């Protein structure tokens, strides 16, 4: 009986150790939601992933999976980019793996730097496709004082 209890506790510890942390409703979530709005014009995290998180990006982010028994393959990737928390973890892991670089030289690591790193353009932000439109989207999103909508696509004025 004691052995089975120890095995159960060990299994629960392993699951807890490898489960994705919840980034929902955190500052990281807010920053990435603005990044996603800049990318796609929408606040849908899964829409953002569809446009900017390919299989290679996901692998560089450590191949986050939804469950510990999932093999990190194409099927796990497709499942991940359809899950808000997994998208958050993927983008956050990718940015963190690149290091906290101050891409815009403002003396601070912030969501604008995350945007540049997300596009792989920290050394030269002009390489970001449609930079002006994406900066406009990001800056307007970041100025919002209230919680952003979870599922709206807002037309651009630019």
Poorly predicted regions are 4-17
Could you tell me the radius of gyration in angstroms? 18 Å
In helices, the fraction of residues equals 55-70%
How many individual domains?
1
How many β-strands, per DSSP?
A: 0
What does the average pLDDT come to?
81
Organism: Nicrophorus vespilloides (Boreal carrion beetle)
Signal peptide: 1-19
Protein name: lysozyme
Catalytic activity: Hydrolysis of (1->4)-beta-linkages between N-acetylmuramic acid and N-acetyl-D-glucosamine residues in a peptidoglycan and between N-acetyl-D-glucosamine residues in chitodextrins
List keywords for this structure.
single chain; 158 residues; globular; EC 3.2.1.17
Lay out the secondary structure:
Layout: H1 2-18, H2 27-40, H3 45-52, H4 55-60, H5 74-80, H6 84-98, H7 111-118, H8 131-143
Helix pairs in contact: 2-3, 2-7, 2-8
Notes on the structure:
By secondary structure, this protein is mostly helical. It has one domain. It contains eight helices and no strands. The longest helix is centred in the first third of the chain and has 17 residues.
Quick take:
The chain is an all-alpha fold. It has helices spanning 2-18, 27-40, 45-52, 55-60, 74-80, 84-98, 111-118, 131-143.
């Amino acid at each position: 009986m004691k052995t089975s209890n120890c095995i159960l506790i060990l299994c629960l510890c392993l699951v807890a150790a490898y489960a994705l942390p919840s980034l929902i409703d955190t500052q990281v979530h807010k920053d990435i939601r603005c990044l996603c709005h800049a990318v796609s014009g929408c606040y849908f995290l899964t829409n953002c992933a569809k446009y900017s998180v390919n299989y290679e990006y996901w692998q560089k982010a450590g191949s986050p999976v939804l469950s510990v028994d999932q093999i990190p393959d194409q099927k796990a990737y497709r499942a991940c980019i359809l899950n808000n928390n997994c998208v958050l973890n993927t983008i956050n892991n990718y940015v963190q793996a690149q290091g906290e670089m101050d891409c815009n030289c403002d003396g601070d690591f912030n969501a604008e730097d995350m945007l540049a790193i997300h596009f792989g353009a920290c050394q030269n932000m002009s390489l970001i496709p449609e930079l002006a439109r994406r900066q406009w989207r990001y800056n307007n999103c970041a100025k919002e004082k209230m919680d952003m909508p979870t599922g709206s696509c807002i037309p651009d004025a630019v």
